[in-house]
Write a structure and sequence with these properties.
Radius of gyration: 16 Å
Number of strands: 0
Order of helices and strands: HHHH
Largest sheet: none
């Protein structure tokens, strides 16, 4: 099986997340956690890049953020362990699409 993370980077975003969600409430099996976590990391890298573009474009047209210093933040290290637990203990609900 080609890794989910490699397939995600190759453009199979929807298919990868459909497969991950298919594991249902039991989540991804332990041997596949690392690959699933890397697919999630790549998803979040893309989210961050898109947020950066949005913030830049809004700033360029003069949008006034209520809290400009908070318009784009990097992850807070104290929350990373909790985020990791959330990734490792994935629980997908039917009908929720995560990409």
């Amino acid at each position: 099986m080609t890794s989910w993370s490699a397939r995600y980077r190759a453009g199979e975003c929807f298919a990868v997340w459909d497969e991950l969600r298919a594991y249902g409430p039991d989540g991804v099996p332990e041997p596949l956690h690392e690959d699933a976590e890397e697919a999630a990391r790549e998803t979040m890298r893309r989210v961050a890049a898109n947020v950066d573009v949005i913030v830049e474009r809004l700033t360029a047209v003069g949008y006034a953020f209520a809290y400009p210093d908070d318009a784009r933040q990097t992850p807070i290290s104290r929350f990373l362990p909790m985020a990791r637990l959330g990734i490792m203990g994935w629980r997908f609900r039917a009908g929720v699409r995560l990409y």
